[in-house]
Amino acid sequence: MMDCFEPILTERLLIRKLEINDAQDFYKYRSLPEVYKFQSFKPKNTEDIKAFFEGLSELPNIKNTWFQLAVCTKDENKLIGDIGIHFLEDNEQIEIGYTLNPDFQGIGYGKEAVTAVIRYLFVVLGSHRIIASVDPDNKKSIRLLERTGMRKEAHFVKSIKTDDKWLDDCIYAILEEEWSS
User: Fold this and answer.
1) 53 with 22: CB under 8 angstroms?
2) pLDDT at 181 over 60
3) pLDDT tens digits, 86-127
4) HSE (side-chain half, CA atoms, 13 Å) at 42
5) Helix or strand run (H / E) with residue 29
6) Helix (H, G, I), strand (E, B) or coil at 69
7) CB count in 10 Å sphere of residue 96
8) Is residue 4 classed as helix, strand or coil in its secondary structure?
9) Within a 13 Å sphere around the CA of 76, how many CA atoms are in the beta-carbon half?
10) CA-to-CA distance for 22 and 36, rounded, in angstroms?
């Protein structure tokens, strides 16, 4: 277990722990229909955001918890997205999920942020395997996963129920030895 999360700096981004002070900016992009289209979390009001924040772990690397990162511009510390890290039961396999404000998509921020978090999980935490669950219709997200080196491992047919509809789910993954090579 770690005592804290040290922010990650990239060429253009500051990736830090998501804080309650981010709630308003977080809600602004997370409540957009084009953002939550492929997500199970669809906030209707600030109470939903508050409940979301209350369910997060305060520290990384605690099994069976989600730890949420804020993706911010390095120069202004402006919240432009977030990355969730799900520490699974064995604590050596990690699930990631990410969301980027549409105003900041298409200019490489997603790849820069996800690559930095994958590096952190492998190099700093010594993770064995990282996975991501994605709707097969979410072509932008699939391209991002592939650009970060992840490969498709599975396509589950009608395996997730959201809004009373059964949806397909694809699993992408990368192993530590694949990342190093």
Assistant:
1) no
2) no
3) 999 988 999 999 999 999 999 999 999 999 999 999 999 999
4) 9
5) helix 23-30
6) strand
7) 21
8) coil
9) 4
10) 18
